[in-house]
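One record is kept unedited as follows:
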Amino acid sequence: MDPRIKNRLRETSESLSLYSATAPSAIEEVFNFNVREMDAIESATLSKYTVMLGQYLITLQVRFNTARVIGGQKKKVLERKVQELIQSGSAEGKTLKEREANAIASDPELQALELDFDEAAAERDLLDGIDKPIIELINALKSELRRRAEEKHYTERERAS
């Protein structure tokens, strides 16, 4: 993998705290809370975690959409410029794929565009689907909050009887 793409993926991962527990935000607190101590965590804290994860999902979706749009734009520009070279007869080859590959190999600007596209596509792929486990965690926290509310309601009703 190209070093530029690796750097882009690492920067994306770090800025969104995908794989680390260093503190650019409070989201690590949610990702790292000890489930074995769930009963000791206050309901207000669990509610806070739910909201924080919802906000984090928004950030992830914006980042994913941005990478998708940038990748699409880069791909269109690359395809257009490659097509121009092929139509001008500058790119040799027997098949269309060979002519496209030769066009890119012969032009440093196209190579840079291809790398830009690969970089955006790699970031998009990194973020694709990461929302699902976070949604599951949000749902688990909501279930715990509901369970606690029902338990509290039941206990209060029992005491009143």
User: Anything to note?
Assistant: Helices lie at 3-15, 27-32, 43-88, 96-106, 108-127, 131-160.
